[in-house]
Design a protein that fits this description.
With about 550 residues, the chain is of the alpha/beta class. The protein contains 14 helices and 21 strands.
Length: about 550
């Protein structure tokens, strides 16, 4: 223990006090406040024989008309959970009776950046991670890029805003489904207008480009709406895209954003240790971040919702477990409705905490409806063979296959589906992505997934999004749209970091929210069926059940 007041936590209490919240070991973290910024354990937990600090109860938001509460997992909003951005992007449901947190909150460093803001500045010019950050001066998404988009990036880098607008408009026309071009077009227009309101969105461009694009479509769609009719003339919304390439980079990327005085708020990050370190840095600097573990939403009976930031120390990520429990329960009930009692083979990948937690929650829920798990299959096990495994579990009596797999295991999910002959397949929302529909072909027909949001025939948001992006959008797009609306509203009312932070601590009303399912009670189900509204290259689409 450091005599100057700093202390080290590794997630393992040293005094065997059973009243401490359940945590897992983590890399040693130096702390300055009363609680560990990574796991929430108090300082006393690291002292052999130390006594637990006093706790206080954090109750519902004053004046709330509903006890329902959404832990915003902004997304896609975030997906490779625990690796940047992923499932855990939207949680909505009943508020827990009480959430405990330490009386004292971690101290904050500075509420405003020291350097004066230059509205024409390009963030990456002064960033340590310049290659991972862009407002339009570079293209972050690899792959085929049309000449107009390349020309737009060059013009933007040279601060030739009219040329950038012309070129990016051509790029959008050539590929209307590309959110990067759409955002950069809006950014060039915001720069030309002279005094933009700037936010950053942190998404896994390199590790999960499809997920990143789904999130950016929501951000870009609200940016488009905001800039068409800005509350303050000449102050358009600008979006800095940040490539969350790996958890180890999260803290360094956060420092780059903190040092840029133009950035008024951040959307993104996940629930992994790297993200928690980054979020702690934002808190200390007074820069608002909407993330899985720093944001809640309270809907009310009038159709509005209030989005509010909460401190990392309050451990909102505990709601993630509640969400997965609901996913497991919903799918277990569905499995039992198809066969009672249900006999299920569970496929999971042991390198993912999300996958393991989902497996465990489903297994527990299945036992409550008298179903049974015939076999658990770790697809990471040496020598895993999809065809041989399907034959094995079928011979053992399985009638249903539950794919509790993380998003980066889409190839293995498809292999299982193609090897399958008779199992009814179900899965979680990490498999709700274009790759499943495109690569799976006929093999994935009728697979059922539990997702926080699905496109409904008469949903105004879904219809508008389909028109803008020339195709259906996912729940990650919907939640990112809501989160961007909240940030933009706060920017308009208080266009400085401290004002934005104070406004979001109180709460921002958001109307016409796209995320209106109570997914801590029951998670909506979708099924892969033949249709023309799926991704290019597939004859299937996901429709609500």
């Amino acid at each position: 223990m450091n005599p100057q007041g700093t202390w080290i936590c590794d997630g393992v209490p040293k005094n065997n006090n059973q009243q401490y919240p359940s945590t897992e070991p983590h890399t040693p973290q130096e702390n300055h406040g009363p609680d560990c910024i990574m796991c929430g354990l108090p300082k006393e937990a690291m002292i052999a024989g130390g006594k637990k600090s006093q706790k206080t109860v954090v109750s519902s938001i004053p004046g709330s008309k509903s006890s329902a509460r959404l832990a915003f997992i902004v997304a896609g909003i975030a997906i490779a959970l625990l690796a940047g951005f992923g499932l855990y992007k939207v949680l909505q449901g009943k508020q827990p009776a009480e959430v405990t947190s330490s009386v004292s909150e971690p101290s904050t460093a500075s509420t405003e950046a020291v350097a004066p803001a230059d509205p024409q500045a390009i963030v990456s010019d002064t960033s340590a991670n310049a290659q991972l950050i862009s407002q339009g001066e570079k293209i972050l998404f690899a792959g085929a890029t049309n000449p107009a988009k390349q020309a737009g990036a060059l013009a933007f880098a040279q601060k030739k805003w009219d040329d950038a607008i012309t070129q990016y408009q051509q790029a959008v026309t050539a590929n209307p489904n590309d959110p990067e071009s759409k955002i950069y077009l809006n950014n060039a227009q915001a720069k030309k207008a002279g005094n933009p309101l700037t936010m950053a969105v942190v998404v896994p461009v390199t590790p999960n480009p499809d997920t990143a694009k789904e999130v950016l479509r929501g951000v870009g769609q609200y940016q488009d709406k905001f800039n068409a009719s800005p509350p303050t003339a000449g102050r358009l919304l600008e979006v800095v895209i940040v490539n969350d390439i790996e958890p180890q980079k999260a803290a360094s990327l956060a420092q780059d954003l903190i040092k840029s005085p133009n950035i008024l708020g951040v959307l993104g990050h996940g629930v992994d240790n790297g993200s928690q370190q980054a979020i702690a840095l934002y808190e200390q600097a007074g820069l608002t971040v909407l993330s899985p573990i720093s944001t809640s939403i309270t809907p009310n009976s009038s159709g509005q919702s209030t989005l509010q930031t909460i401190s990392l120390a309050k451990k909102a990520n505990e709601l993630l477990g509640s969400y997965l429990k609901t996913v497991g329960t919903t799918l277990a009930k569905y499995a039992n409705s198809k066969q009672s009692p249900a006999a299920v083979a569970v496929f999971y990948n042991s390198d993912s905490q999300y996958s393991q937690q989902l497996k465990d929650q489903f297994t527990a829920a299945l036992s409550q409806v008298n179903g049974k798990v015939v076999k658990e299959v770790d697809i990471n096990a040496a020598g895993f063979d999809a065809a041989a495994t399907i034959a094995d579990v079928t011979n053992a009596g399985a009638k249903i296959g539950f794919l509790a797999l993380s998003k980066n295991k889409a190839d293995q999910a498809v292999a299982i589906a193609k090897a399958n002959q008779s199992l009814e397949l179900i899965g979680g929302d990490e498999l709700y992505n274009p790759a499943i529909l495109i690569q799976g072909g006929d093999a994935i027909q009728n697979i059922v997934l539990a997702v926080p949001w699905s496109s409904q025939p008469n949903d105004p948001f879904a219809n508008q999004a389909a028109t803008i992006w020339k195709g259906r959008v996912s729940w990650r797009t919907a939640t990112a749209y809501d989160a961007t609306q909240a940030l933009a509203t706060a920017f308009s009312q208080n266009p400085n970091r401290s004002g934005v932070s104070q406004q979001l601590q109180v709460g921002i009303p958001i109307t016409g929210t796209a995320t209106d399912f109570n997914v801590l009670n029951e998670v909506p189900l979708v099924k892969a069926v033949p249709g023309k509204n799926g991704p290019a290259g597939s004859k299937y689409q996901f429709d609500p059940i």
